[in-house]
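pls design
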């Protein structure tokens, strides 16, 4: 069914320009194909409905070539059927009232098919136009957001020049937001890849520092921004105190779907011994509380051989895009 829908979409969007010679050529080809098929049927069942094979031809001709091509196919289908498949054949005669009514019904049905198919073309054209407009607006908004974020970045950098610790923390979060906003603006198939977010957050610490097991996951809505902040906090803490503070340290992230949730386990390996902090920091609170409003959760576990963070995301806003495991 999807393949058929895709074929129709291709015909409408990539077919010849309505009213062109190519469009009329499509109509002629459709009528020819319908005629040949009806001749084959005639060998088995000479008394079959004369117009049966022409209805799909009208639909395809209209979808691919526009309303004028559909009208041409309708008229040609009536002429060919009358000449070849209505008794007496090879004569412009209608021997009975039933035959006359059949021709009228065919023309009525053909006209209805052409009108309906053309309305579909009109709707698709409007959708394409709206999509182009939306794309322009989104690109413009993305450009403005980047400019404002750059301005905020410059202001904070100037104001916090005498407080490097605070600046390092704030600038990192701003970078995480900017990275995810860029991913959102370039997001494919309506979602943002979780592996992309992970890779981009770990990239500053060197290649091969993160290993991802399980299917890639698409994140939707506002969730990618929050997840990027969570991973940024985890990566920052790992760089200061954990696995990323040593050259051989790694982050292992495993992903799996459980019922209606996506589970992610962040596990630090080959890092220094870890102890649970005496007090909770802003970063820890951000990690464990930021996903609450999305119906998700994050839990930190300070194990001696490395920090483990278990993240649960709702499948309604996060879904696997493939089943093949990926290693980064």
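designed seq:
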């Amino acid at each position: 069914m999807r393949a058929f829908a895709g074929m129709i979409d291709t015909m409408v969007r990539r077919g010849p320009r309505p009213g062109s010679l190519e469009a009329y050529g499509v109509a002629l080809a459709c009528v020819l194909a319908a005629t040949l098929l009806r001749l084959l049927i005639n060998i088995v069942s000479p008394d079959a409905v004369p117009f049966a094979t022409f209805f799909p031809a009208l639909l395809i001709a209209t979808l691919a070539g526009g309303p004028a091509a559909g009208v041409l196919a309708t008229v040609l289908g009536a002429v060919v059927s009358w000449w070849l498949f209505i008794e007496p054949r090879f004569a412009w005669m209608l021997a009975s009232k039933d035959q006359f009514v059949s021709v009228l019904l065919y023309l009525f049905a053909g006209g209805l098919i052409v009108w309906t198919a053309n309305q579909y073309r009109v709707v698709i054209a409007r959708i394409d136009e709206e999509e182009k407009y939306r794309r322009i607006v989104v690109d413009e908004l993305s450009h403005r957001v980047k400019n404002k974020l750059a301005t905020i970045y410059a202001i904070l950098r100037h104001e916090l020049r005498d407080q490097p610790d605070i600046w390092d923390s704030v600038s990192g979060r701003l970078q995480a937001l900017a990275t995810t906003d860029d991913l959102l603006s370039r997001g494919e198939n309506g979602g943002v890849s979780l592996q992309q977010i992970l890779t981009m957050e770990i990239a500053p610490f060197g290649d091969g520092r993160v290993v991802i097991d399980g299917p890639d996951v698409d994140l939707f809505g506002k969730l990618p921004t929050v997840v990027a902040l969570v991973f940024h906090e985890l990566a920052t803490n790992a760089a200061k105190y954990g696995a990323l503070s040593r050259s051989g340290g790694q982050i292992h992230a495993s992903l799996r779907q459980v019922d209606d949730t996506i589970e992610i386990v962040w596990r630090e390996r080959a890092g220094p011994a870890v102890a649970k902090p005496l007090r909770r920091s802003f970063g820890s609170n951000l990690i464990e509380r930021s996903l609450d409003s999305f119906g998700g959760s994050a839990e930190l576990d300070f194990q001696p051989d490395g920090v483990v963070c278990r993240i649960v995301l709702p499948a309604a806003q996060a879904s696997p895009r493939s089943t093949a495991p990926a290693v980064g």
